[in-house]
Amino acid sequence: MAVVFDTVGIQSVSASLVESAEITASMEEVVVADSDSGFGAAACYDPTFEGSVSGHGDTPTACVLGGAGDGTVISDLLGNDGITIITSLKESESNSSFQTWEISYTHAPDAAAAGS
Which residues contact 86 (CB under 8 A, 6 or more apart)? Predict the structure, then answer.
């Protein structure tokens, strides 16, 4: 439910609170020697980002296992270019800590969706 600031009374808000976000970037590299065994050329390819996001409240709707993670804190961090795969989704609840969730993902910014 959206909060309306021009209405007097008690309002309930259902939202997610991100507690932490971790990102690790990596890429492959190739170094080619020239004819006298010195440095010839180098190139980096296949950049990927792996990480996790955790928080409290309702699990973000777009974050389903194997899903794209679009429109969530993941796409807010990394942008909408490429493909994001949700690899793990954990939800828990206890008396002292209600509605907690953790999402792990892999993002490939240069990847294209299958069939596109």
Answer: 63, 64, 65, 66, 67, 68, 69, 103, 104, 105
Question: Largest alpha-carbon pair distance within the chain?
Answer: 80
Q: Is the pTM of this model over 0.90?
A: no
- Scored b (16 or more CB within 10 A) or e, 84-111 reads bebeebeeeeeeeeeebbbbbbebeeeb
pLDDT attached to residue 39: 84
**Per-residue pLDDT, 1:** 47
What residue spans define the domains of the chain? Answer: 16-108
CA–CA separation, 86 and 13 (whole Å)? 26
User: Region 25-36: what's the mean pLDDT?
Assistant: 87
DSSP symbols for 25-94: EEEEEEEEE-TTSSEEEEEEEEEEEEEEEEEEESPPTT--TT---TTSHHHHHH-SSSEEEEEEEEEE--
